[in-house]
């Protein structure tokens, strides 16, 4: 029997037949994979706590030609702090949705996995989860190869600005001479915030000034991701913005 030990998080579980579930797992070793969990619909099944969403598990999987089968597993982290807050649930679900839509199945993306796990951990440590969300989004889109240009005008290269704008189509900031009507004006503090969330690690979130409109940056980053990856807007994003009153 071919047993694989894989670290991962269930990002979706769909009923299959009378007794089983098909899981979509984001794993450290193999990226996104499909796993059959036989008997997992049985309320007495030992597998039930292994397949709850947001829990990180060391899975024992048996691999057949087409599929992975869930054999057993060991819980690494319950992440129960996420389940107690509906806004956190929507945001983490949104991260899952964005990752799933912007990567290939079975594509190994360890650095993204580590970023996600760390973000989930800090959702339990830091009150301001919109800041963490913005940090995740800008780091993730940078990992995909769309790091925003922030050190100079992304059109003319100028480094001295009277005012700063963000241009989705140019992939970064633009100066007052290059800005177009649809570009987003940034205050100096908003500009600094964007630079900081890109370069700073989660251990340093406290030094990032959050006296700005973080919802505006959140929307900007989501627009930036959608512009570059062409994904559809996840329903988790819509649920969150509705709840948060973001237009
Ligand atoms: Zn310019």
Automatic annotation (TrEMBL):
Domain DNA replication/recombination mediator RecO N-terminal residues, every copy: 5-78
Record bears the keyword DNA damage: yes
Gene Ontology annotations for the cellular component aspect, listed alphabetically: bacterial nucleoid
Listed Gene3D superfamilies: Nucleic acid-binding proteins, Recombination protein O, C-terminal domain
Superkingdom field: Bacteria
A Pfam family per the record: RecO_N
Keywords in alphabetical order: DNA damage, DNA recombination, DNA repair
Biological process according to GO: DNA recombination; double-strand break repair
SUPFAM superfamilies, per the entry: ArfGap/RecO-like zinc finger, Nucleic acid-binding proteins
Family to which the UniProt record says this protein belongs: Belongs to the RecO family.
Function: Involved in DNA repair and RecF pathway recombination.
Matches recorded under NCBIfam families: reco
Protein name: DNA repair protein RecO
Organism: Helcococcus kunzii ATCC 51366
């Amino acid at each position: 029997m071919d047993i694989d030990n894989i670290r991962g998080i269930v990002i979706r579980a769909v009923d299959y037949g009378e007794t089983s579930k098909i899981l979509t797992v984001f794993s450290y070793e193999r990226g996104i994979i499909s796993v059959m969990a036989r008997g997992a619909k049985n309320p007495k099944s030992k597998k039930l706590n292994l397949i709850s969403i947001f829990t990180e598990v060391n899975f024992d999987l048996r691999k057949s030609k087409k599929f992975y089968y869930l054999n057993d597993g060991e819980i690494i982290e319950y992440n129960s702090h996420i389940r107690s807050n509906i806004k956190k649930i929507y945001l983490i679900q949104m991260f899952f949705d964005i990752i799933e839509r912007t990567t290939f199945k079975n594509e190994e993306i360890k650095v993204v996995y580590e970023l996600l796990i760390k973000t989930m951990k800090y959702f339990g440590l830091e009150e301001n989860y919109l800041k963490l969300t913005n940090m995740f989004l800008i780091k993730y889109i940078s990992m995909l190869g769309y790091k925003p240009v922030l050190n100079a005008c992304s059109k003319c290269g100028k480094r001295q600005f009277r005012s700063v704008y963000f241009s989705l189509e140019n992939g970064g900031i633009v100066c007052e001479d290059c800005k177009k009507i649809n570009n987003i004006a940034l205050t100096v503090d908003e500009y600094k915030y964007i630079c900081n969330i890109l370069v700073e690690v989660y251990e340093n979130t406290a030094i990032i000034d959050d006296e700005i409109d973080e919802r505006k940056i959140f929307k900007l980053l989501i627009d930036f991701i959608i512009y570059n990856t062409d994904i559809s807007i996840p329903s988790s994003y819509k649920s969150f913005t509705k709840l948060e009153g973001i237009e």
